Amino acid sequence: MEISRRSFHATVPLSARLIAAGLLWVAAYEVLPSFAEFVAYGALGLDPASALGSSVAFFLYDVPKILLLLALVVFLIGIVRSFFSPERTRKMLGGKREGVGNVLAASLGIVTPFCSCSAVPLFLGFVESGIPLGVTFSFLVASPMINEVAVVMLFGLFGLRVAVLYIATGLLIAIFAGWVIGRLRLEKWVEEWVYEVKVGNTRLDEKLTFEGRVAYAWDAVKEIVARVWLFVVAGIAVGAVIHGYVPQDFMASFMGRDAWWSVPAAVVLGIPMYSSAAGIIPVVQALMEKGASLGTVLAFMMAVIGLSLPEMIILRKVLKIQLIAAFVTVVGMGIVITGYLFNLIV
Description:
- The chain is about 75% helix and about 0% strand.
- It is mainly α.
């Protein structure tokens, strides 16, 4: 089998394989609505007007749709990420002043590999490189919040406009939060041992071929999809239940535009929760279909992703409680403002 695969790769050009994969992706995506309806209403014989039929069709359509979109975008982002590494990011941000540094750090946070478990080593590396604390926080906010999973799912569920607004507001929150923390001069609330640590540099492989970058991107697809598919299924399952069974007036009553307190309440509720974008965005979709406002549910989502409890616990290794509290307060305020803004303009 391995010999046959190598032979196939040797005889079929990479460009042809990519085109074939793209055509298969488009074909699979196009048949999803018919597939979901056939299975739910034909094979299973469910009533389209029933809560159960509606929930099952929602689930059968959204799971493969999100996984297909996720695989495509992770692959494309993987090509971009093959040009970056945490070490290269540190070098690009080293010596940058606040302001310009905050903008650059937030922008790099979108395309640089990062997860909660990377928070401490990245933070140590940034400090060693002389990067200002505020610039470091712009990166730490943008990287988990504006990730490819969140963007692709928002695009797939709500369209380009909402996805672009999400990216823009996430960047503004990251830039603003980092700038404010930098102005407050909170270095005294970084654990003392951090400034004594020396983190080694890893030599970058800057000569990857295109085939090497494609292989890197494909590995990223396998790794990320394997890591989040269960969250996707669980999140869409919850969303399907909300879609089919939760009354519309019930959700609109406390997550609609008219409830002024709904946005800060959503942020407070989201901070202690733990979920990935893959698990929370299908819930966001179902809540909106039941009458919740976009700004409120996006504020909830951004709090869950950008201020996750596990990341705060991990960062406690390098930050004192006062700095973590300041970080949560500043970012939380930015998310609340964003929620109100979305409710006003969308």
